[in-house]
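User: Modeling request: complex.
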Amino acid sequence: MTTLLVPPTATEPVSRPRAANSLLVAVLKRIVSGVIVLWGAATLTFVGLQLAPGDIVDILAGETVSDQARAAIASQWGLDQPVLLQYLDYLAKLLRFDLGESYVMRQPVADVLGNQILPTVSLAVAAVLLSVVASVLIAVATAGRGPVARGFASGLELLAVSVPVFWWGIVLIISFSFTLKIFPVVATGSWRDLVLPTITLAIPTTGLLTQVLRTGMEQALDEPFAMTIRARGVGEFALRFRHALRHAAVSSMNLAGWLLGGLLGGAVITEQVFGRSGLGTATLSAVTNKDIPVVMAIVLLVAFIYVLTSTVVDVLAVVIEKRGQS
Amino acid sequence: MTALRSRQDRVSPIDRWRQSSRATVDRLAARLPIVVVALLALWLLAVVVAVFLPQVFVPGSPLEASPADALQAPSPQHLLGTDQLGRDQFTRIVYGLRYSLGIGVGAMAVSVVFGVLFGLVAGLGGWFVDEVLARFIDIISAFPAVLLALLVIAFTEPGIVNLTIAVGISAIPKFARVIRAETVRVRTSDYVTHAVTFGARRSRLVLRHVLPNTLTLIPVLAMIDVGTAIIAGSGLSFLQLGPQPPTPELGVMLSESRNLFAFAWWLAVFPGVVLSLTVIALTVVGSRLQRTLRRAS
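Assistant: Request completed. Predicted assembly structure:
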């Protein structure tokens, strides 16, 4: 196909190895910049901690303890070291995935968080699935349709992003748990516990994804290739699902890291509304108890997930782009 | 010149999404009947009055409790019912708008000031400065807004000022990116190149050409950002990380009465409706204003 469109040039065989090389360079560039962002995130949290008013020893010891005891605690936690040494120690530990020790629980942060990961991950995975399915259906059904369908879709999008997440949760609890009594108010251990939190968490994500998919699909349906496919006698349904959607999906891939991060942020609020345990609840109690190692660990974990996802997506985009060029 | 051009092209996927999302909201706002838009504008006007002169709407105090009247359903006496302490909910909501809007506007101010600063410096500085600031902005964007705010509050103390700053920080990248792109555009435009050939000084260039041209973007962006900040702020207040009870902030009110929702639906419904309606009104009216301004110029 491409050979028909692009006239072969004399330089082509020569440029091949260079193309592979430049692909490698571009990929490496993305990875390096991802690592820089991670290092910056770790440094920024460390600097924030140093700049924060108040003494960490106060949190650890309480304010009534004698100076001697304070000094002992400071040396036990390595807080009597120069700041630069503390920083290097902190980075070295992070490199070994050692997230430090919780001030409050007096055990490794990894253990504190380990038990909390599963409920949050199952909630987030369910919300991702729901929002992907819902936004694909809405986008396929309404992209490029008449004014009523599009008005309906953009109205939904506006509502999804303008109404606070916690209030969606409250509204769902009142209507489905209190009034209709379909879903339990208190956790029962069955799959039914997951339904309302999943919907709550999925609403803003669905709003965003639908916007991206719908815009992408409307652009794709305007392209000449859409007309070609229609002319081949392929049905409207297949055109939308197999061809236009694929185009739109590529552009929404770019948002994956951002959406995942937003989901984990939304989990903090959703878990509170529904009284669930998980990373969000752990973060919140760490914030209120000033258990700073735990807060820093969670924030860095989420930044890590964001950077990892965006880097993978970026690298994929570079590979696809370069392959298209050669 | 070519280096500058290619710098201008570096648009992050989030910005591309923002543009498309603005486009869908704009299209919706443009198609809404003028009556609806007028009603939303009227609502905003009422909100502004409630912020500055709450006495116009309600005679009483938001903190005045009368246990005998606790948990009453909406009635002519208490238009939106009363809460567990017998406080009039209508009064509390009217006074609560002050806090929600204050957080929204304050956070927006933080993001605009730092966003404009970073954006201008990045757009006008050399390659190195631009690169460093771009990375810095990338780092801030790596933290989801809620978690960034949680981190700031963990380092400081829960409270309305820290909450406002925390929400503001998370929106800095949005403004910085827009201002940087616009700065680069203005700087590479023909008339600025022209001014440079005539020997205009750098400070004059910034103050006379770049700044006024980039700042025209701010008001409407800012108005819509207030809505986003209100949502983020109310969520954190709901987690009780901002103003503390008995402050009549809408998120705090919802969090305070959450155990009573089974018996008192009005405590759950009205604060949320007022909050959402305000955010929707800001978005829609902001978008319509932008359209009108663009047509006028």
